[in-house]
Amino acid sequence: QELRPKSLDIKQEELGDMVEKEMASTSEAIEDAVRRIEEMMSQARNESSGVKLEVNERILNSCTDLMKAIRLLVMTSTNLQKEIVESGRGAATTQEFYAKNSRWTEGLISASKAVGWGATQLVESADRVVLHMGKYEELIVCSHEIAASTAQLVAASKVKAEKSSRNLGRLQECSRNVNEMAANVVASTKSGQEQIEEKDTMDFSGMSLIKLKKEEMETQVKVLELEKRLEGERVRLGELRKQHYALAGAYNPAEDGEVKPAPAPRRGILKKPPLAQKP
């Protein structure tokens, strides 16, 4: 018992309550996100017009569709989680089932938190874009994070679910719908960004030869600086992900009695055998 991995300052008998609280908290976060998007839509119609209004409406509508898809996903996940507990606990209580499968429970809690956090971040990014204070790239990154969090929630639920479960089938369908809606947010964001940037067309017709050459050299310098900065940020992103995985830890179904397939052996590079030495 002492060697079993412990939760983050949470007693095992409290894990069941934590699952329900996190699912409820995630649902509340999504409901709040839907309300905030509706408020942003009204604000955008009052404060913007023309191309900017068209872009804002398209982006916010896609965000609303994504929030609705996430809300349905969380509801279906909650139903599946209850089904798993009822079918797997036997004569044990719900709390005992969660304590016995603590690693699975912690994975479920972590996935639910990730989904709620992703929804909140998406709304905040959309708010900054509508107010001309944010970057379109933030929305794209948030959409990718939501898709990843959704996959995490489905994987955590799938570990203990029966393959023939209808709720599992519905959850997988909801996951595909979330991914589709997230892709729509990315598409609407990219098209909106292009539409806004087209207003600032580059006109070099009035420049002299010397001025054009100077602008060309300055642009080349900027390109090299951005390429160097991009490489540095990629290295930083890799280190951040390593630290994230080290702190969070990968969920291991084998600890709850599930068989984890062994990784395929890596094929080494075939080396040429050494030539025989002549006597």
UniProtKB/TrEMBL annotation:
<dbReference type="GO" id="GO:0007015">
    <property type="term" value="P:actin filament organization"/>
</dbReference>
<dbReference type="GO" id="GO:0043325">
    <property type="term" value="F:phosphatidylinositol-3,4-bisphosphate binding"/>
</dbReference>
<feature type="coiled-coil region">
    <location>
        <begin position="207"/>
        <end position="243"/>
    </location>
</feature>
<keyword id="KW-0963">Cytoplasm</keyword>
<dbReference type="InterPro" id="IPR002558">
    <property type="entry name" value="ILWEQ_dom"/>
</dbReference>
<dbReference type="GO" id="GO:0030864">
    <property type="term" value="C:cortical actin cytoskeleton"/>
</dbReference>
<feature type="domain" description="I/LWEQ">
    <location>
        <begin position="7"/>
        <end position="248"/>
    </location>
</feature>
<dbReference type="GO" id="GO:0035615">
    <property type="term" value="F:clathrin adaptor activity"/>
</dbReference>
<dbReference type="InterPro" id="IPR030224">
    <property type="entry name" value="Sla2_fam"/>
</dbReference>
<dbReference type="Pfam" id="PF01608">
    <property type="entry name" value="I_LWEQ"/>
</dbReference>
<protein>
    <submittedName>
        <fullName>HIP1R protein</fullName>
    </submittedName>
</protein>
<dbReference type="GO" id="GO:0030136">
    <property type="term" value="C:clathrin-coated vesicle"/>
</dbReference>
<dbReference type="GO" id="GO:0032051">
    <property type="term" value="F:clathrin light chain binding"/>
</dbReference>
<dbReference type="GO" id="GO:0048268">
    <property type="term" value="P:clathrin coat assembly"/>
</dbReference>
<feature type="region of interest" description="Disordered">
    <location>
        <begin position="252"/>
        <end position="279"/>
    </location>
</feature>
<dbReference type="GO" id="GO:0006897">
    <property type="term" value="P:endocytosis"/>
</dbReference>
<dbReference type="InterPro" id="IPR035964">
    <property type="entry name" value="I/LWEQ_dom_sf"/>
</dbReference>
<dbReference type="GO" id="GO:0051015">
    <property type="term" value="F:actin filament binding"/>
</dbReference>
<keyword id="KW-0175">Coiled coil</keyword>
<dbReference type="GO" id="GO:0080025">
    <property type="term" value="F:phosphatidylinositol-3,5-bisphosphate binding"/>
</dbReference>
